[in-house]
Amino acid sequence: MAAEKKAVFIIFGGSGDLAHRKLYPALYGLYKAGILKEHFAVIGTARRAWSDNYYRGTVVTSLLDIDDDQEKMQAFAKHFFYQSHDVTDSDHYIALKKLASKLDDQFETDQNRIYYMAIAPRFFGTVAEHINSEGLKTSGYNRLVIEKPFGRSYDSACELNGSLTKTFSENEIYRMDHYLGKQMVQQLTRIRLKNKTFEKSLNNKYVSNVQVTLSESLGVEDRGGYYETAGVLRDMIQNHIMQIIGAVAMDEPAKLDSESIHEVKREVFASLKDLTPDEVDKNFVRGQYGEDITGKQKAYRDEDNVDANSDIETFVAGKVEFDSERWGGVPFYVRSGKRMPAKSSRIDIVYNDAAEEIGIRPNTTVTILIEPEDGSYILVNGIDYLESNQDIIKFPEKEDYFDHAREAYESLMIDILDGNQIHFTMWDELQNAWKYVDIIRQKWDSETPDFPNYESNTMGPDAASELLEKDGNSWVWAD
Ligand code: NAD
C-alpha cells in the first residue's frame, strides 16, 4: 500500500461543478487507497454562506455514484471544512489562513498546502496574488493547481503566468491537462521505451502520417456560455491535442522522470514548424454543427446561451508539422469536434512501405485508443495487438493491467501530493502551443465563416477529409 500523504487542500470554488464531479471523488479514491488517511484536511471556499455540515453533505452526495459505504464516506467528510470567501476580499484570506493553520495543527499535516483553483479563470491571478500578500504560504510545501483554460492567447497566458509567478515558482505550479492523467497517455512513454521496434519506427523514415482524434458525440449541452468564449481551437487543440502530439513526437527521454520528459517535450514544441497566416486556410479547417438529419438535435446556433449568429467553431481539423530531423515531412493530422458520431480519443500511426525493413508489414496502422475504453486497447490494423501477429508492440505484460487503472484526476492528485510534475504542462511548452494556435485564431477572427457547415452526427465538414486527400492520405477512423 502507498504511503500516507499529509496536506491541507484549499479548494477555491469548493461549491462548484468541477469540485463535486471530479475533485471530491478523486480525493475519496485516495482515501480508500490509504494515500489520504488521518493527516489531511480540505477547505472548500466559495461565495455562499454554507456550514461545515452542509458542505460535508454535498461532498458525500458527490460520492454516491461511486460508493455506498456510508460510514467510510462520513468519516472522509469529517476532514472537510467550509469557508465563505470572496476572491477580492483581503479579510477573507486572513480568515482562511487562520483556519488552515488550525487544521495544520489538528491534523498534523506538516504545513503542506495544496491550493486548487476550481474557480473561474479570471480569478486565478487575483487569488494567487492574495495568497502572497496575505502570507498564506507556509514552511511546508506550497503547490498551486491551475485548471484550464490557461489564458485565451499567448499574451493573456503570459499575463496570467506573470501574476502566478509573483507567488509561486514554476516547480510549485501544476497546470492541469486531464488528458495527461489518462492511463493510455501516461503509458505511451513506457510503451515506447519497452518496445524497441515501435520506438525505432517513430520517425519520418517509417511513418507516413500520425492522426490524433478527440471526438465527442455530445453538443455543448449546458455549457454554451463558456463555449462561446472558447471554441474547439482553444478548448481542445491548444492543450490536449498538442500534449498528445508531444507525447508521440518527442525524443526518447533519458529517464522516466519529470525533468527528462519535459526536456524532450520542450524540444519538440520548440520544433513546431511555423505556420504563416497564408497557410492557415490550406492546413486548417473549422466547422460548426447544424441540426442532425432528423431535425431532432439542435444546431449549435440554437443552443442555450449561444448567439444566433455565432461564429464559434465546434470542429477543427488540421495538419501540424515539425521542423526536425526526426519528423520533418510527416504530417500530424489533428481533429476534434462536438456532435460527431461517437466519443473517441485515439492516436493512429500510419506506416509507409519502408517500415518493412524493421519488420512492420506494408499498410500497417497502430492505433492507441485513449477513450472511451480508457487505455485497454492497442490495435494493429484494427485488431487487438495480441492477435495481430505483428511484433511491434508488446504491452501490457499482464492482461489485467488496466483493470487497476486510476481515474485521471485521482492519478494526477497523487502526482501533486508526490511533488511530481511529470504529467503537467510546463510554461515553455504552453508558450509554444499558444504562439502556434494564435496564428490560426487571428486569421479566423479576421474572416466570417460559412456556418453551420456540418450536420450533427457526422465526421465534420467535407473539407476535413479533403485536407488529407490532398496529400494522398485518409482518416483511419472514418466512421
Ligand atoms: P462552477 O461555476 O460550477 O464553480 C465556480 C466556483 O467558484 C463556485 O464554487 C463559486 O461559488 C465560486 N466563485 C464564483 N465567484 C466567486 C467569487 N467572486 N469569490 C469566491 N468564489 C467564487 O465552475 P466549474 O465548472 O466548477 O469550473 C471551475 C474551474 O474549472 C473553471 O476554471 C473551469 O474552466 C475549470 N474546468 C472545469 C471543468 C468542469 O468539468 N466543470 C473542466 C475543466 C476545467
Q: What does it look like?
A:
With 479 residues, the chain is α/β, with parallel strands linked by helices. The chain folds into 2 domains: 7-147, NAD(P)-binding Rossmann-like Domain (Rossmann fold); 180-401 and 432-469, Dihydrodipicolinate Reductase, domain 2, CATH 3.30.360. It is 37% helix and 16% strand. The chain contains 14 helices and 14 strands. It has helices spanning 17-32, 52-61, 70-77, 90-107, 124-133, 154-164, 183-194, 196-201, 224-249, 258-270, 277-283, 408-418, 427-445, 462-469; strands spanning 7-12, 40-46, 80-84, 113-117, 142-146, 173-175, 207-215, 284-287, 315-320, 332-337, 344-351, 365-371, 377-380, 383-384. Strands 8-9-10-7-11-12-13-14 form an 8-stranded mixed β-sheet, with helices on both faces. Strand 13 and strand 14 form a beta hairpin. The longest helix is centred in the middle third of the chain and has 26 residues, at 224-249. The chain is globular. It binds nicotinamide-adenine-dinucleotide (NAD). Nicotinamide-adenine-dinucleotide binds at residues 13-19, 46-47, 85-87, 118-121, 147-148. Nicotinamide-adenine-dinucleotide (NAD) is lined by residues 13-19, 46-47, 85-87, 118-121, 147-148.
User: Mind telling me the CATH superfamily name of the largest domain?
Assistant: Dihydrodipicolinate Reductase, domain 2
Please name the CATH architecture of the largest domain.
2-Layer Sandwich
Could you say which overall geometry the principal axes of the C-alpha atoms support?
globular
Structural class: alpha/beta
Spatial separation of the terminal alpha carbons: 43 Å
Q: Point out poorly predicted stretches.
A: none
Strand content: 15-25%
CATH topology of the largest domain: Dihydrodipicolinate Reductase, domain 2
